[in-house]
Structure prediction request, 958 residues.
Amino acid sequence: MTPCSDVFVGRARPLALLEKALDQCSVGSRSLLVSGEAGIGKTALIREFARRAEARSIRVAWGHCYDVAGIPPYLPFQQLAERLRVDFARLSESLLDESNAGRPLARRRKGAPEAWRQRFLTGVTSRLQNMAASQPLLLIVEDIQWADTGSLLLLNTLVDTGGRGLLLVSTIRPEEPVEGPRQRLIYRLQLKSARLRLRGLTIEEIRNLVSRLYSPGLATAREVRFLHRFTRGNPLFVTQTLDHLESQGALQVDNMERAIAQTRIPIWLGGLLDVRLATLPAPVLEVLSGASVLGDEFSLDVLSVLRQEPPAAVEDLIDVAIQRGLVRATVGTFGPRFSFAHALYRKRLYESLRPSLRRAYHARVARAGIAHEIELPVEEQAAHVALAGESTLKSRAVTFCRAAAAKAERVCAYEAAAWFWELAVQSASPRRPRQRADLLARLGWACWAAREWQRARQAWKEAVALYEALNESQSLAALALALGETARWQQDVGEAEDWLRRAIPLLPSGSEARLRALAMLGGVECLRNQPTKGMAMLDEVRQNRTVQVDPYTFYWLSYGYLTLGDVETARVVAEKGFALAQDADDHYTGSFLAAHLTHIYLSFMRAHSASRYVAFLERAVEPSNMMGLSFLLISRSLLAAYRGQWRRVIRVCDRTMGELRLAGRYQFAASHFFRAEARLALGETEAACAEMSQALPDLAEMRPAAAMHLARALLRLGDLAMARRLLRRFAPPLLSTRRMAAGRAILGEVSARLGERALAEQVYQLLADEQRPLLLLYSAVSVQRVLGVVASHLEDWPRAMRHFETAIEQLAAGGVFGELLPTYLDYARMRRARRRRGDLTKALALEARAAQLREQLGMPAPAPAARGSSAVGDETYGNRFGLTGRELQVLRLVAEGRRNAEIAEALSISDRTVERHLENIMNKMGVGGRVEAVVAALQEGLAGKLPPVTVADEPSAV
Prediction:
């Protein structure tokens, strides 16, 4: 009987698509992802395709991923390199910086972990692309759902960097669960690859498969149709069903449908494999169960040691499994090897082992490796020793896991290193606290490098407690600094302050580490409204002349001065740090500083200077640098919004959001806010509100100012109640934290629109001393425009005019068209509200300039308010009469039939103020009385089927 893997039928269309991709790779690299359930024929398809490629003189190399503990990092690429006759280990060492190789993560220099890993990834992919340039190359990686993080990063980098003559084909089972970062990396690869989903074979293809595997007369046409329906066209299911029926002799006495029913074959593939395994002789099943501990592939000598039987006896049992089609014989580098016919067999066998027997098997392999009876990679040896769980092997487990983790760190496989450090911690003796503390510290650094912040903090905190008991001040200081920095990145300012204060006295005076801690703590003190203490620390770092400070410290130093309000010093410091990062070729830290400088220059309306740093980000940010991609999106979006290019903002977000989904929920939510701000500016108010509402939960804790962007959008939609709830909830942190200047600006605008006089006055005082003309978060906000809006609400007309005139002068000179348009409209409303001689003419001129600018920017004209609209928060979207928010509230209450006294009570104002508002309403609308005003309001959609507007029950104090 011919093994299923050697028979290929059908699949004409998938083969044609693969060959088309092979033709196209001569002008550029291509990536294809073949997906399908287990047994659907992915491997058979790829083998046939590889055979055809080799016939065209194309080099083909294979790599496999396995669902087995202790697999070495980058295993599929090691296999690819072996088939291409490249020494992967030597290549790895040549790509890594010599000063970093072999050193613990905590003591490495020259950049961040992402930079070290990117250097390695780029070097490996460059070598493969150079090979493809000289001769077309087909790389095949199977079962990437089991790939380690490093291999998935390499696959993505290979696709990102392009090249000629290279075709990458990966296979995946979509039904297999994949967690965390690996899931995001697979998703990212899917976005950049042509996808080919394999379905079941057709009835005719099953007929051909049965004929070629068995005999043309084995199944009638009716039986083939039944087999197709029963197996849903899954080739492995078909062959395993027929194999089982033949081995039981069922087909000789009955037709296929009754034979399947009588032998009780399960209706799913996994159940059938269990049935087939159960029919094996007990010795064969025991041998295969032991082999499942070794992985999808195994050698006879290792299996003999595991079974404690002579190799010849084991080989005889394996031969039975080969005859049954459950195992295949292959030829490896070091002699004959065996593999399961399908990975599902190994998985079913391993999961069925009793835990005690599983541990016993791991222990046998571990002892054989320790005694040098067999040769195992250090990663496999470490996994077997640790998974054995025997107290006598604990010390050995720590030794091997240390070696495996250090080896993984050398090739920047941080996730694999963290797994081995975790095993080492579990194996460490509680009676050796120093050893346990060291292992926990190394685990924390590996998690930190892999950007698993919470795991890192948890491991470090436990290590700190042990070091403190051991009076190890130097180790304690290093971890306290790491904890403070990590907490600072996660916006946990209180905990960051605690750890940094704990670290600084223990760090050597004048050391680079102490200066970095001072820079961070100085910024934290400024954030916590301790500017005197903060400035003293920042100045101490800045005045240092003896220690070379790295670019990363300059970033924190600049951030501290920016928080303090000394923007010019922040700019100078950031420029110096950026120059150092460029000199050191540290693009990772350079991207932090470039984004920081983009923000600073846009704040002072120096768009040309900001553009230079955006251009640097576009050149320097690698596709695998998630943080850099986030900075690039922020910088591009802010620059486009600054210029009023709102559709460009949407294009930038749409193009980059797929990548940022991998960076984390916070970065992904931030990209939603940038896009929503653009949609709001383009008049898509409902869509903008919906997008912001969906993204806010992932931003509110770290960026409460985002809530004010949503509140402003809700005002334009007319949802006053929700806007007021957001105002009440988020105003306190925005008012009490120094770094929330951009949020305070929008807070001032929202509070004015909602009639929150006391809050508007408070924000006015805070913004009056702001040095920067623009404040930026998810869009640029003119400080002078907001001050003008607040002064208009307070009816301080002279100050409002000065602010608006200043804003128009600044924004026009700086080309800040994104904010110039609403400034024209806000100023026009202020002139209409004041109603002095010449105000109406000035308002009409401002509105004409706004219309002209809107046309120049290619923005749609504002849609007329829908009947029943409640958009009283922002008159731009509410009416053509220039009625203020308060005047609209009065008008609606008049439309409800309320008397002046009732209106005064509802709005908590005096009767005289109601009369003044009514006079203004009639003059602006050009009507002669209350009835005519109500009729006009109904015609314009400013009143009608609306809920009563009551604000007396909404407390104004925040």
Q: What stands out?
A: Residues 1-5, 864-878, 945-958 have pLDDT under 50 and may be disordered. Residues 440 and 459 are 5 Å apart (CA to CA).
